[in-house]
Amino acid sequence: MSAVLQPEVAAERKAFYAKLDKLSSAPLWEVLHDLITPTPNTPCKPHLWKWDQMWPYLQEAGRLITAKEAERRVLVLENPGLRGRSAITHSLYAGLQLILPGEIAPAHRHSQSALRFILYGSGAYTAVDGEKVTMNVGDFVITPSWTFHDHGNASKEPMVWLDGLDVQIVELLDAQFMEKGSREAQHTDRTGSDNLALFGNTMKPVQYRAQSRTSPLFWYPYERTREALSQMKDGHEMHPCWGHKLQYTNPVTGDWAMPTIGTFMQLLPAGFRGKSYRSTDSTVYAVVEGKGRCLVNGETLAFGPKDVFVCPSWMSYRLEADDEAVLFSFSDRPVQQALDLWREAF
Ligand SMILES: [Fe+2]
After folding, report:
1. Longest C-alpha distance within the chain, in Å?
2. Contact 78, 152 (CB under 8 A)
3. What is the pLDDT of residues 156-198, one digit of tens each?
4. pTM for the whole thing?
5. Could you give the CA distance from residue 16 to residue 12 in angstroms, rounded to a whole number?
6. CA 260 to CA 331: how far, in whole Å?
7. Distance 107 CA to ligand 1 centre (A)
8. Ligand 1 centroid to 106 CA: how many Å?
9. How many CA atoms lie within 13 A of 302 on its CB side?
């Protein structure tokens, strides 16, 4: 409401709003233009978290608190436009989790779905509903909704991964549930190689019937993803905006690997200068290999290996690479597409 009002009309309206307020009601016309905007009006800001700055603080956290005491020793990556909400975008949570040699992050389960993307170290494991996978840099691991999971580090090195969860989506829907496991580490009788053998070869056990929308393949080793991208680079034309890009899929349905979080891996050839792109899904990027830049909203986010950066909804951005770069990314695209909300523009 921007029109200049006669003082007596303004006073009358103010008194009317005060009466409404007592009935937990309010006039729509005072807020309509902030509610229904011509284009996305996200509080999410572009931001870059440099590994070199985060790593000393992760090590300090390792000295201050054990994984057992913390339950999960994680430094949350809070978007500067969303401080205090444990959110990296308006709809998603992300954090850097440290697990030291010999530690166990105890078993629990929750309705939030989680992804792990390994940034540093190798040899720690994640166990999901009795199946155990050993993780290495660049691996993408899924913890589906309501599955028991614990993490442990049997190696001699600290290990760090990026956690991505649909915390804010589940919170919006008031559908949060959480339960601690009866044992610190669950009994495991199957390994990641079983999981890969059963679901990672464009085949599935003949009797398999899906119990959820989440991929039954929960470990996507980097070795395979990297090989696929290299082949793609050699044999296919690249996209002017995103280079060579693959989407992780549920091998049984061909749909997204997770129902609420879309996950991708892309290769930018050396010297790549991407064209401008925007989409309605605010996107979190984690750098696996190479150095380059994301140019967004007048800012230059200069990235290198293990850095994390975020591009907000509907803000045009361009990607550039100096040497060959490989970027993992995730967003709420499956949710937006399921609801017919997703848009992109070149
Ligand atoms: Fe968890």
Report:
1. 77
2. no
3. 999 999 999 999 999 999 999 999 998 888 777 777 788 999 9
4. 0.96
5. 6
6. 8
7. 8
8. 9
9. 2
